[in-house]
Task: structure prediction
Amino acid sequence: MRLRHIPGAEEQIAESPFVIQDPQANRGRWAEVFGNSNPIEIEVGMGKGKFIMELAQDHPGVNYVGIEVYSSVLLKAIQRRKGRDFPNLWFLRVDARDLAEIFGPAEVEKIYLNFSDPWPKDRHAKRRLTSPGFMAVYDKILKPAGTVEFKTDNRELFEYSLESIPSAGWTVDLYTFDLHSSPYADGNVMTEYETKFLAEGKPICKLRASRRRGGEMPE
Ligand code: SAM
Result:
């Protein structure tokens, strides 16, 4: 994603009614923030927020948190959300590496990683959101039966993830190299990047991972 500094972005984020300003203060207390104990699902790297806003609209019985590290990008999501009232959706401007300081153990039901930055150079592998280091962070905040869903057009990143995720002790429950020609396409919610890549004729890869072992649920 091309990033341009937008003057005043930080100030607008600080004043936004859609953004939690001090998310660490809510660690272990997200049910209070939402005012109910519905399951919590988060999107890491939500970009302009199309995907998570659609989920929030379609599933009022689920709570959503959209996470974006860059102010200039988060501002676009805030602008897109204006005039749309979702009581079940908050935005955070945080880095995914800090998620365990924001959510308590087992506080999250599902994590979505959509079209995460590929970081193709080997020396940047640790920055990939499916690297073992990030999977260890997700492990801390997900419920025992919780899942990570990952979509990408980037075949190299996907093949890397098919190895890195099991190497971190997770099970890949399902995967496809062409989501839109697969049975898993049913109910798929498109992201901004997905719409663009699909229009270019690129196949979309998807996997779902959990900490199940041989079909057994973890303790
Ligand atoms: N998910 C959106 C979609 O599919 O249209 C946006 C995809 S965009 C390629 C990846 C997004 O992830 C960017 O907005 C980027 O700023 C964000 N991102 C990358 N690393 C992140 C991190 N460590 N924590 C939070 N967001 C991150």
Q: What stands out?
A: The domain at 112-219 is CATH 3.40.50.150 (Rossmann fold). The beta strands are 40-44, 63-68, 89-93, 108-114, 142-152, 171-176, 205-210. Confidence is low (pLDDT under 50) at residues 215-219. The radius of gyration is 17 Å.
